[in-house]
């Protein structure tokens, strides 16, 4: 059992397609997850500004706010004191490597989290070329694209991987063997995605205890 | 007894499986306390049912009691089936592009053994509605609806469709399943109709098992799902499958 478990990818709020727990804290308590980086679902599925305001009003040290960044050409860069922002370029219809997104990310200087389904390897490579210091957390990488992910992790040293959906036999160990546990970050995507299986996996990884503890607490990213 | 209803061995071309081996599977099973896992070889699901089944039987022989064999039936290849030393038959209507209720599967149902079938909501081959058709035709054949419909938007519908067909069970593996949904399915159809499967090595055994281990279930329901239900199915057919039951349960 690891001492500190941080879920780098969690949601708070309602979703339009299911009746899921809106508050992550009871399940975090039940599963032994001490802290979570959370995004408000309203910011993803409804009004970005309203969702981010609701998130930033939480003021719970267990819930680290990850507001959604929606680059707007004619608005100022948000003045947020947060460690990470989330971008949804497909859903919110903007270019991850467009001039506004690049300008805003450069100004903010915080980690950018993006779901793999919201982007592409080409866009991630372009982002890393344009902003080589930009720290990127790739969410929901899944298990079917490990070959592409390996290329990305090789080419982009500032890319970290959330492992909640890396779900094929010993896939996490394979990644740790190639890139080191420090590049891997425990996260779940709950409650839309599953937290039970990934939480169990964390306690049963065939890796040195120090590596498991590192992954559990956010690799070298968080 | 902990029994995993849905497992595989071997590689699959769509993506990298870091450890597709039988030895690796058994090592993880030992670590987690899983008594046995029902396997079909992915070669059998893919292009060669006969050779893939041979590999599955060979793995089961190398690890006595740890692997139950779901022999794959390919309706195009019409490969031979046995009623000896197997858990039953695995069919994959989507890969084989043959609807679950197609008469070409009749040799499977006529065997009378449990059947595990891929079940995918909105698929033209394996939508849960087709399980109802088969269940009506063959009420004596235990039928595991693999993946419980696969897509989250289909889980509740799959449960509703099979509720009045007691020979159909929801098997819960899949990358979109959650511990929360397992509890909801158990509440909807009864925990005695939900069967644990992992889809390892296609998916990671630890995630599939852990999803049930940590699902918000009471201990009695968890025990049913983790093995009690499948043991009951295998025991029931053990007594009716013409006495050829060696290798069915550990």
List the helices and strands and how they pair.
The complex is a heterodimer of chains A (222) and B (250).
Chain A: E1 6-12, H1 25-31, E2 35-40, H2 41-45, H3 48-56, E3 63-65, E4 84-87, H4 99-108, E5 111-115, H5 121-130, E6 136-139, H6 146-155, E7 159-162, H7 171-179, E8 184-185, H8 196-203, H9 209-216
Parallel strand pairs in A: 1-2, 2-3, 4-5, 5-6, 6-7, 7-8
Chain B: E1 3-9, H1 22-32, E2 36-41, H2 42-45, H3 49-62, E3 67-72, E4 88-91, H4 93-96, H5 106-111, E5 115-120, H6 128-137, E6 143-149, H7 152-162, E7 168-171, H8 179-189, E8 194-195, H9 205-213, H10 219-238
Parallel strand pairs in B: 1-2, 2-3, 3-4, 4-5, 5-6, 6-7, 7-8
Helix pairs in contact in B: 6-7, 7-8
Describe the structure.
With 222 residues, chain A is α/β, with parallel strands linked by helices. Chain A has a single domain, classed as TIM Barrel (Alpha-Beta Barrel). Helices cover 34% and strands 16% of the residues of chain A. Chain A has nine helices and eight strands. The longest helix of chain A is centred in the middle third of the chain and has 10 residues, at 99-108. Chain A is globular. The mean pLDDT of chain A is 97. Chain B is an alpha/beta fold and 250 residues long. Chain B has a single domain (3-240), classed as TIM Barrel (Alpha-Beta Barrel), CATH 3.20.20.140. Helix content of chain B is 40%, strand content 17%. Chain B has helices at 22-32, 42-45, 49-62, 93-96, 106-111, 128-137, 152-162, 179-189, 205-213, 219-238; strands spanning 3-9, 36-41, 67-72, 88-91, 115-120, 143-149, 168-171, 194-195. Chain B has an eight-stranded parallel β-sheet. In chain B, helix 7 (152-162) links the parallel strand 6 and strand 7. The longest helix of chain B has 20 residues, at 219-238. The radius of gyration of chain B is 16 Å and the shape is globular. Classes of the chains: A alpha/beta (222), B alpha/beta (250). The A-B interface holds A 17-18, 20-21, 30-31, 142-147, 165-174, 190-191, 193-201, 204 and B 14-20, 24-25, 28, 31-32, 152-153, 175, 177-180, 200-216. Chain B: GO terms for molecular function: carboxy-lyase activity; hydrolase activity. Chain B: One of its GO terms (cellular component) is cytoplasm. Chain B: One of its GO terms (biological process) is secondary metabolic process. Chain B: It comes from Nonomuraea polychroma.
């Amino acid at each position: 059992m690891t001492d500190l478990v941080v879920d780098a990818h969690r949601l708070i709020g309602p979703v339009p397609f299911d009746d899921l727990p809106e508050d992550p804290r009871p399940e975090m308590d039940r599963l032994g997850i001490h802290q979570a980086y959370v995004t408000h679902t309203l910011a993803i599925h409804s009004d970005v500004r309203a969702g981010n305001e609701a998130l930033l009003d939480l003021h719970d040290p267990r819930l680290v706010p990850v507001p959604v960044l929606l680059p707007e050409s004619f608005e100022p860069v948000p003045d947020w004191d947060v460690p990470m922002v989330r971008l949804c370029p497909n859903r919110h219809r903007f270019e991850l490597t467009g001039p506004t997104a690049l300008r805003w990310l450069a100004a903010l200087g915080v980690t950018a989290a993006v779901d793999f389904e919201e982007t592409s390897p080409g866009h991630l490579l372009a982002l890393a070329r344009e902003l080589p210091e930009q720290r990127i957390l790739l969410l929901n990488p899944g298990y079917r694209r490990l070959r592409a992910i390996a290329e990305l992790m090789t080419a982009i040293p500032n890319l970290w991987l959330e492992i909640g959906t890396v779900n094929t036999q010993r896939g996490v160990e394979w990644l740790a063997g190639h890139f080191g546990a420090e590049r891997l970050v425990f996260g779940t995507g709950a409650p839309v995605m599953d937290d039970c299986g990934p939480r169990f996996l964390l306690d049963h990884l065939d890796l040195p205890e120090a590596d498991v503890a590192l992954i559990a607490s956010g690799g070298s990213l968080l | 007894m902990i029994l995993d209803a849905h497992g595989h061995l071997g590689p699959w071309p769509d993506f990298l499986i870091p450890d597709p081996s039988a030895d690796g599977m058994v090592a993880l099973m030992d670590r987690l306390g899983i008594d046995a896992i029902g396997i079909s070889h992915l070669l059998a699901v893919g292009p060669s049912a006969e050779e893939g089944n041979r590999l599955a039987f060979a793995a089961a022989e190398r690890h006595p009691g740890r692997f139950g064999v779901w022999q794959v039936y390919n309706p195009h290849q019409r490969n031979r089936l046995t009623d000896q030393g197997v858990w039953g038959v695995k069919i994959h209507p989507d890969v084989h592009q043959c609807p679950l209720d197609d008469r070409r599967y009749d040799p499977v149902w006529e065997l009378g053994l449990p059947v595990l079938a891929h079940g995918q909501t909105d698929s033209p081959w394996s939508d849960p509605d087709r399980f109802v058709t088969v269940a009506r035709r063959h009420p004596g054949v235990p039928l595991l609806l693999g993946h419980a419909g696969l897509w989250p938007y289909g889980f509740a519908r799959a449960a509703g469709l099979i509720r009045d067909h007691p020979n159909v069970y929801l098997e819960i593996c899949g990358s979109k399943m959650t511990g929360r949904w397992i509890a909801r399915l158990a509440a909807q159809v009864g925990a005695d109709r939900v069967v644990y499967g992992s889809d390892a090595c296609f998916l990671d055994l630890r995630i599939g098992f852990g999803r049930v281990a940590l699902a918000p279930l009471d201990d009695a329901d968890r025990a049913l799902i983790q093995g009690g239900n499948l043991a009951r199915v295998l025991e029931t057919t053990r007594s009716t499958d013409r006495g050829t039951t060696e290798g069915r349960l550990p």
